[in-house]
């Protein structure tokens, strides 16, 4: 590989030694012809912890798969640097399954005659588990356009989003919000978007069996997933006419995916959602996980 041609090489030969599996998977010639990988507008130092996580997960996969199998499944994904972070999360999902699986298949057809596939089919303690990984990057608080005042200075920005879907508001006797002057407004709650993501994942998973969605949260609040699964919290005030006081009553809206009524029916074959997030502030990648089982599962 030409020393000037790849950000892997530069002046630090140890970078090549730190990521031998990534080097081998992508190919020295390909890297030499793509000196911008993996930048995507970010310096190599920013990517270093993430490449370390990727190298670690590829090492775990290499214990279960041959290099040719890993190459066939992931080389094309990793070469697309615009989706590199999503690929890091997907491969981390496979690495989570490896240690607990006696058998693991990648990119499995939904059924023999289907062109649709799901990410992983694993045998865990004798039980077949089907997994589809979805990534979600919620940039709600990042302004689309910088707001500049008359003096040419950055004036900040104001954003707002509904927490209860306007389509559900009438049934809850709630009023849908209105856009405030000068604000960036989103009428669709993040919980609604996340339910749509889960339904998309379910469309790729088999009709029967243990079906789990790995929700890889690149950015956003885990609370929004909990609202998607169990309903959005809202407050009603009960008035005591005798002393003219109000008592707040907190409730969950009947809109969650994991509910016993018709709202939960489309999700009845979803066994659980595994939420996970990877994060780095320039140092080692930190990992967080939370499993949400569906108690309304169709047996």
Task: Tell me what you see in this structure.
By secondary structure, the chain is an alpha/beta fold. Helix content is 29%, strand content 25%. It contains 8 helices and 10 strands. It has helices at 14-18, 20-26, 28-33, 44-61, 67-79, 84-97, 190-204, 222-230; strands at residues 103-109, 117-124, 127-137, 159-161, 184-186, 210-219, 233-240, 245-252, 272-279, 286-293. It has a 6-stranded mixed sheet with strand order 1-2-3-6-9-10, with helices on both faces. Helix 5 (67-79) packs antiparallel against helix 6 (84-97) and helix 7 (190-204) crosses helix 8 (222-230). The radius of gyration is 23 Å and the shape is globular. The N and C termini lie far apart (56 Å).
Structural class: alpha/beta
In what order do the strands lie side by side in the largest sheet? Answer: 1-2-3-6-9-10
Rg (CA only): 23 Å
Fraction of residues in helices? 25-40%
Distance between the termini: 56 Å
Q: What percentage of the residues does DSSP assign to strands (E)?
A: 15-25%
Structure, briefly:
With 299 residues, this protein is of the alpha/beta class. The chain has helices at 14-18, 20-26, 28-33, 44-61, 67-79, 84-97, 190-204, 222-230, and strands at residues 103-109, 117-124, 127-137, 159-161, 184-186, 210-219, 233-240, 245-252, 272-279, 286-293. It has a 6-stranded mixed sheet, with helices on both faces.
